[in-house]
Amino acid sequence: MNAVSTLPELPAYSEFVSHLERAPARTATRWPFAVLAVLGVLLVAAPVGTGMFPRAAKGAAMIDAFGPYVTAQSIDGYRSDLRVLADARTNIVAVQSTSTPPGEYPRVDQFVRDYPGIQSDMSAMLDAIDTHRDNYRTLAGTVPFGVLPWLLALPGVVLTAAGVFGFRAAGRGSRATAWRATAALAGLALIVTPLAGGLFPAGPAAQPLIDGFRPILTAAEVHRVQGYFVTLVAADGELNSRYTAAVRTARPDAELGGITALEQRWQPMTSRFAALVGTMNDNVGNFDAVVALNDVSRPLGFGAFRGLAWGFAIPGALVLGLTVIGSRRPRTDLIDTGEGEPQ
């Protein structure tokens, strides 16, 4: 007999150690997509619910309309016009004290009587505009106000879509990378907007400008200034038609330099004042819309313009954070069930 026995066949290594099992496919994290969708809806709802679309457009119109008047050159011109009117009044008072006493020229008399108040009120208005020239320039240098609600709503639409479709894709086991990337781009846009658009410096500038213009841009103030204009036009008409000739007849050597300077300056002066009063009148409603927009956040303790930049940046940072969280890879797909091996 053959003494050599045949050795039993050894088991394969894979049969000896363990059986490698593939873990069930893990779905990607879904909750970040749900939060992205909610953020997107809020970004769309915020400008709609606060009336930001029409109010911001009116604010943009007001900023554009006041551009020619909120300059040092323009304000100096108006102040010079007021000085010419003051010199003319001084001239008339001097004449009245010597040759043409008050009473015969009622419109000239009204000008003499009312002009100190007119000058004081108009000077205060010009001072208010001059004081806030820098704040105005800061606001005028930002992204156009009328565009701002769109810069919130459009990323909101993108985030809503990315959230909904990403959530569904993650439920099917996909990592939904494309939707995360789309959301990240929208979040990046939200962060870049206040930085590139100058919204951070605009916030502190808006409230002082609103406070400074509040006494000026009212229907009552515009009506009062229009009344001043009527007084000035009537006085100039009487000076031209009767008063100056009467003084020349009574006193050929009378000093009328102030009145003459007014006559020479009258046409460009009235044109400038008419343009300013017209702009004020046209923008009372626009200013009210800006105030209403700023007051939307008053219940939270701050003006909307002060928090406007953060209204873009904070959602943008949240979106980027959510996309990073959602991009974390799941733990290894392979689970070794053998004893002594790490799970």
Automatic annotation (TrEMBL):
Superkingdom of the source species: Bacteria
Transmembrane regions: 31-53, 147-167, 179-200, 307-325
UniProt keyword annotations, A-Z: Membrane, Transmembrane, Transmembrane helix
Protein name listed in UniProt: Uncharacterized protein
Annotated source species: Nocardia yunnanensis
Biological classification of the source: Bacteria, Bacillati, Actinomycetota, Actinomycetes, Mycobacteriales
